[in-house]
Design a protein that fits this description.
The protein is mainly alpha-helical and 181 residues long. Helix content is 88%, strand content 0%. The mean pLDDT is 83.
Length: 181
Amino acid sequence: MKMNLSVVMGVVDKTTAPLKGMSSESDHYAKAIKKIQKAQADDSAAIGMIDSFKSAKKAMNKNAIAIAATSERLKDLKEKAESAGKPSAALTEKMAKQKERLDKLNGEHAEYKNHLVKLGKQLTKTGVKMHDLDGESNRLNQRYKKHGQEVSKLSKKYAILKGVMKPIQKLNGKIKLPNVG
């Protein structure tokens, strides 16, 4: 089928503008989806940090209880040693083991404390309020779900736009400009 050059160029001109508009709209949806997915990833990371903070705090509390119990046992052993006057080798060995265990627990406690301080700073940087971690966790979960709904809504619109663009792109691909020369 041979067509006049002016007719072909007119068709190309008429289809180019709508295609460029649809293409920019397509880019808009893709950018919006990426932006929301990044926010969703940030929320997910903050939720993970909150859970990590809670578990570290729980471990620190268990460690504090163990420190108190070990300190109490060491105190009892020292009292036995003082009451005996000259402590036996077994009692001295028990005291040394309790002292070693207490030092180990104190070291772990310091590590937990440092970890909690670092996590607290990171959470504060992400905008999480440290005084109400449960409320913040709920807020972030709701926001995460909202972002998921927004992504699915935009993905549907994007799929519809791609479906509308497909026939026009096929038509544009079929139009061949004549060779001059």
